[in-house]
Amino acid sequence: MKRHVRGEYIRELLDRYVNNGWHNIAEFARFLAEVDEGNKNAECWRTNIKRYMKRNAIEELPRPNEFADEEDNWLSDEDYYYDGHNDRYITSLKTANNMIVVDGNTHRMMKNAYSDFTGKGYTISQMALKFGFPRQWISEYIKVHKWRHDMDPYTDEDMLSRNLDDMIDEIIEKQRMGFMKKAEAKMMLQMKRDADAFNELDYYLLNEFRNLLADVDFSARYKPINLETPISEYVAVISPTDFHWGKYGWQDETGEAYDFDIARSRLISKTKNLIGRLPGQPEKIIVPTGSDWFHIDTDFATTTKGTPQDVAGSPGQIMMSGCEMAREHIEMLRAVAPIQVVFMPGNHDRMSSLALMMYLSAVYENTDDVEVVINAGTRQYVVWRENLLGFTHGDSIKPAKLPSLMAQEQRKEWGLCENHVWFHGHLHHRSLTESNGAFVVQLPSLAGADRYHARHGYRSRPGLCAHIIDCEQGLVGSLYAPVMEHEE
């Protein structure tokens, strides 16, 4: 430090602390030597103090508490000093019985951490843990510097010395980073909650189903159907998506009736129709289920999000009979070929479809020809020969984005497989599109209309599809079994 600057610094310290109250010159000298961090020893400071007193006609140093009449006056604007030459804050703390010196970077980090301006500010305990100071010191330090959670993260010295535009840009960036951290933390928390919920469902519900089904005979109900050997090996995808078991439609209001009996009749008859038209024995049948298999998801007869629905029975009746209906459907297909069941949770039955998954897992736990894939994800993937198949309900992701999403989530399999096919429901209409290297199949629904759909003119021809996936050529055809008016 240059000599004239050093001289100004010495005078500044003397002016700053001379009236703090001292028992003698030696005590004041030792204090200044500590604040000066060894640049001058106590003896040198003693000489400087004497010269200062002579120059300012001070016969005796003020005694301790001479200028403080009550305890509350101890904290004031004069209880800290910013040493700009060395970028440090010298703060008088009663709880420390001394002055403490904090470097400028640490002080600014403390101010930023305490501020709510760019995120939730630290508590005093968190501050003490992060910066390594006793909690009592931190509490008093905050009071001395008059910090509040609702203050900006900058010190007074920053405001005087820094460029305003730079600070604004910095605040925006800090807010952005705070937002990203908060979003990431929320996402991780939700993932943990979902995982915990699924694990509990897996453990408790699956065990409960095991106990309930322990004495039930689940040998195949239907006699095996022997079909001819196909020209080329294939699998069939048969998905009664958007079945809406438990939906009710009164014909006078909706133009068509829909209830338990009609729903069951449609599923059984159209499944038989498709089986009779299959081009030979498939290697297996993939049955994507869930996907609004149930019309409701709560004890209040609402969807997962709470939308009231017209229902044909009580929530308990819908759940129990719906599980039995799903098993009966699988048994029909099981007579033709081995079954692989994958789940697509829907917006009507997000949790009920998980319960159905656990039920079917318990039913077929000890069978060799039925595989129930236990996975709570909203998107499922199956690899078979040269085919990568994706399954999702269709309420969360736009169909046009599904091919690129498959390529990202299944990068290795995407590269290894020649053919890529997506299957989704949700909209109750049949369609087939091709984009970005994949077919996107929109599946039909067997369900009839309820009051809401009838009033808004949402109509579709109900039916069930079987899609033929060749071992090498991929999606080569589809079979459609429509519901005919005269059949009901």
Strands, helices and their partners?
Layout: H1 3-17, H2 25-35, H3 42-55, E1 80-83, E2 88-93, E3 98-103, H4 104-114, H5 124-131, H6 135-144, H7 156-161, H8 164-212, E4 234-238, H9 251-254, H10 260-277, E5 285-290, H11 315-334, E6 339-344, H12 350-363, E7 370-372, E8 379-384, E9 387-392, H13 402-409, H14 411-416, E10 419-424, E11 431-435, E12 438-442, H15 451-455, E13 463-470, E14 474-482
Parallel strand pairs: 4-5, 5-6, 6-7, 9-10, 10-12
Antiparallel strand pairs: 1-2, 2-3, 4-13, 8-9, 11-12, 13-14
Low-confidence stretches: 66-77
Q: Strand content of the residues, in percent?
A: 15-25%
Indicate the structural class: alpha/beta
* Residues in helix, %: 40-55%
Can you tell me about this structure?
This protein is of the alpha/beta class and 488 residues long. The chain folds into three domains: 3-164, no CATH class; 165-212; 217-487, Purple Acid Phosphatase, chain A, domain 2, CATH 3.60.21. The chain is 41% helix and 17% strand. The chain has helices spanning 3-17, 25-35, 42-55, 104-114, 124-131, 135-144, 156-161, 164-212, 251-254, 260-277, 315-334, 350-363, 402-409, 411-416, 451-455; strands at 80-83, 88-93, 98-103, 234-238, 285-290, 339-344, 370-372, 379-384, 387-392, 419-424, 431-435, 438-442, 463-470, 474-482. The protein has a six-stranded mixed sheet with strand order 7-6-5-4-13-14. Helix 11 crosses helix 12 (350-363). The longest helix has 49 residues, at 164-212. The model is unreliable at 66-77 (pLDDT under 50).
